[in-house]
Amino acid sequence: MIFPGRLTSNLLLSSILAMALATPRLAAADSVLRVAMTAGDIPITIGQADQGYEGFRFVSLSLYDCLIEWDLSSADRPSGIVPGLATSWEVDPEDKSRWIFHLRKGVKWHDGTEFNADDVVWNFERLWNKDAPQYNAQQHSDAASRFVDFKGIEKIDDYTVAIATTDGASLVPYNLGYIAMVSRTQYLKLNGGWPAYAKAPIGTGPYRFDKVVPGERMELVKNPDYWNKDRIPKHDRLVLYPMPEATTRAAALLSGQVNWIEAPPPDMVPKLKSAGFDVVTNAYPHMWAYELSFRDGSPWRDIRVRKAANLAVDRAGLRVLLGGMMIESYGVVPKDNPWYGKPSFDIKYDPEAAKALMKEAGYGPDHPAKVTIAISPSGSGQMQPLPMNEFVQQNLAAVGFEVNFAVKDWNTLIGVMRKGANDPSAVADNIEGINFSRTTQDPYSAICRFSMTGQITPKGSNWGGFSDPSIDTVCDQAMTEFDPAKQTELFAKAHAMMVDQAMMVWIAHDVNPRALSPKLKGFVQAKNWFQDLTPVVVEP
Amino acid sequence: MLYVLRRILYTVPIALSVTVICFLLVHIAPGDPLQMMLPDNATPEAVSELKAKYGLDKPLPVQYLVWLGHVAHGDLGTSISTGRGVADELSAAIGNTAIIATGGAMLGFLMGIGLGLVSGLCADTFVDRAATTIAIAAISVPHYWLAIVMTIIFAVELNWLPAIGIGPGGVSLSWEDLSHIVLPVLTLSLIPMGIVARTVRGKVVELMAMEFIQTLRAKGLRSFGILRHVVKNAAPSVMAVMGLQLGYLFGGSILVETVFNWPGVGFLMSNAILRRDMPMLQGAILILALLFVVLNLIVDLLQTTIDPRIRRRG
After folding, report:
1. Is residue A59 left, alpha or beta, with left meaning phi > 0 and alpha meaning psi from -120 to 50?
2. Is the ipTM of this complex over 0.85?
3. pLDDT per residue over B253-270, tens digit each?
């Protein structure tokens, strides 16, 4: 016998005791907000979080601040931008490609050091200066996609910086809402590069980092010294769980293990409501549409076909199918958005008008317009893609389309999206449309990137290769217009032109459902991808 | 001793073959790890830069050899999607899976052996049929479905047990932490229980019909004594099956771990597959393949200890 019985039992007992003593616990008095995310893992903690906007929502904006932030205080109005670590900004009157930002004084990092202009310059260098020791290619990729016009940064004094852009870009303040400021001092102190920083991140945000258990949870604690006294968290601790399976999230909420879940499964919403949970929804900048191919030979090149498809979709019926969990879509942005404009094409459910247009275009029951749409069975922001797509497929079939689906897993669909309709792989698979949910958070994301000729994929997000010089002109004007009212007018004009061109088949906007324990009070669901968790009170 | 050395040496070509096949399979699948890391309007320059950073722009054989070189130096690399070390992530996940795999295996083996013995000793009776039905049901019921049903009953409706995850204190003797293990262990125990029960029953029925059992009876040996002989003779085959089952369980159950949100190997690999996190996937497959080989080696050695007749020529 290798181990005598007593030795074995002693070893076992000591191991068990050691495990029991080594396991940390939450203080009993802590009020804890426990959030089940849809992400498959904990988002990275070094500034620009991964896992889509969910990562930015829960990790980046909890630990960090941006120079300019999103106004998440209202559930009623579209959320604009508000001062963050910068208190004010203006474009240089001498040079419209140069922006001046005045930084907030008295802001402290979580380690007590003072925030200043050197931190901002160091942060932009970590994102754009390939020669800087703190440069991180992955973070650069994310930041460069949010702020395409960045050219350079300079410190003017301890609390003022100037940012140069490649041309007279007027959307810079929006771009800065995506760039998180991380601690230069902590990075240098740890001296272990970004892997070390990821384990002990420091920001200026409303929560301080406590710990990460990879694959399992991330724990943050409130920052009682947060510079924005109105946003000091009203709970002690925030625990984030990655929980990709929707039924698991609902079970975790029902059994009391978490008190907040993202995206409850629609078929469990009635049960959650009847059990007393709050299922909160609100419009937010999201689009679920078919983006169309304009390459040679595509039926979508004919505007009558595009208009017919828009008239064929029974959006109200689809809404019933989803238990009310969507907003009917008639453009990239909802009709109450200031950028919607006044298009002349009145999108509605009118199958007879659609049939007439199809007939005019040479299609009908005996000669349907055959199109293949790339879709995914799941994915971030894709809502309930399979039943929704089948519903739309039937709508389109009723007016003279024959829609086939090229079903790809989410990762593969992202690849199809990045390559565009003119890529040889899309041509070979005959893909003439893509169902890929999009953010429309800022005007560039909502309008210009889809419609401008210069944004044709792979450069931008104009997947199908749409081109209309008159829209290009309006977008160019809008992106260099510094008067906010005039700028909004121009974006609305561009959007109305997109609708008149029926450049996509618009179907739904998500309402971002989340279910909350009745013990949570004070949450205001903003019309935004990001949300403010700080006002949430966790009652005992 | 030579036999053991030879078996250990066998693990090298087995592990290499497994890594080559899995490496190719992972790369044949469309998509790449950068797709989900970048925003939808990432510029082609940004994508190319990241591809170069992670070596994804190199030809496949080069990528494989670079990875193998690092592994040979004991470095499993860094996860592309999380930026954390593969070895660290994997060891934590294997530890977590080991907890429920060991629990599930022990429970499944105990129930399976009991059920199989009863079934075999009462062959062709009502008891046998009932036990066989239970064993077949355990193998046939979809486990993710059972996991969801058990969660709804025990966590949601009765609120006796937690629905998800590992306990707040990890693994400890407190009921708060132990209660998290109950449902995953119960779910994982069912397949081993069914398979072991079927194997034990078959062996017992076969052995009970053999002449040496009649001889033992004729010599006046009592039922318990006969049972000892039956168990000893059935053990090598049953152990081989149990070894395989333990290996499967250590590989992690993607579905069960996903339903229970258990941060084990299955959960880790499921994420790695969805995100095409090649370093994580390759590291996990290599370690699991080695684990499987080692488990089988242990089982083989135990078999030869119990029954020297099957000792291989060394």
Report:
1. alpha
2. no
3. 788 888 888 888 888 888
Residues 426-465 of A with CB under 8 A from B: 436, 438-439, 445, 449, 458-461
What's the whole-number mean pLDDT along residues B199-219?
A: 87
The pLDDT confidence band at residue B252, using thresholds 50, 70 and 90, is: low
Q: Do B46 and A146 touch (CB under 8 A)?
A: no
Q: How far apart are CA A362 and CA A243, in angstroms?
A: 49
- A249 contacts: CB under 8 Å, gap ≥ 6: A36, A38, A243, A258, A261, A262, A263, A264, A265
pLDDT in tens, A476-491: 999 888 888 999 999 9
Beta bridge partners of A289: A506
**Is B15 in a helix, a strand, or coil?**
helix
Residue B7 CB coordination number (10 Å): 16
Contact A145 B46 (CB under 8 A): yes
Contacts of A131 (CB under 8 A, 6+ apart): none
Among the partner residues B38, B165, B271, nearest to A41 by beta-carbon distance: B271
Average pLDDT, integer, range A84-106: 93
d(CA A188, CA A210): 20
Between B222 and A199, the more confident residue is: A199
Contacts of B146 in chain A (CB under 8 A): none
Q: Which of B239, B241, B229 is nearest to B204 (CA)?
A: B229
Pairing between β-strand A438-439 and β-strand A278-280 as defined by DSSP bridges: unpaired
Rg of chain A taking only CA atoms, in angstroms: 25
Decide if A41 touches B, using CB distance below 8 A.
yes
Stretch among A61-70, A115-124, A458-467 having the lowest mean pLDDT = A458-467
Touching B: A residues 196-255, CB under 8 Å: 198, 213-217, 241, 243-245, 247-248, 251-252, 254-255
CB contact under 8 A, B30 and A410: no
